[in-house]
Amino acid sequence: MNRRDFSLNLAGASLAALWSGTAAAQGGPVEGTHYSRLAQPVPVSAPAGKVEVIEFFSYGCPHCYALEPTLEVWAKRLPPDVVFKRVPVGFNALYENYQKIFYALEAMGQQEQMHMKVFNAIHQQRQRLDKEADIAAFMTANGLDGAKFIELYKSFSVQSKAKQAQQLSNAYKIDGVPAMAVQGRYTTSGSQAGSNERALAVTDALVQLARKPG
User: Fold this and answer.
1) Does the predicted model carry a pTM greater than 0.90?
2) Domains, the chain, ranges and CATH?
């Protein structure tokens, strides 16, 4: 077993341990306590036969930043029938800027490479990244075309994706981040599950629930 496989297995075992030993371990997470079921299901974009899992987050959220290393390992061990994606929320003007940064990076094909760099810039280096000049300078310093980035950041397609992200978070009734959503039916969060890490264990259980017919 190589180091990466060991880390992935350890993460899975650790998440299971977070849930075991609790009252919920007798029958799994409890609806209304550890997770919520949407009264009106949300359409999903995952192909038929796949389970869609969404993390709602913001680059400005310190809890999202703290969870990211665990979330990254957790996401890598998801089974092949699970489609995982991140959706940035726009709770305020600053978070709306971060939404556009996320989708502009996606448009440049640099989202995966820059994801933690943006988080680190905001939470370690204390950069707000709310002004175009500062955003362009940051992107240039990290090897991207700053002018091209700002062009995409201001583009109609990025604005549209940010709007769609807000509509999706509204449909899921997301009022805090990080939060997890499964197959248009279920949501959970650290406040419901007991911690953000335990929310991932609840998400695993919700994936299994979503696989069941009906």
Assistant:
1) no
2) 1-89+174-214 (3.40.30.10), 90-171 (3.40.30.10)
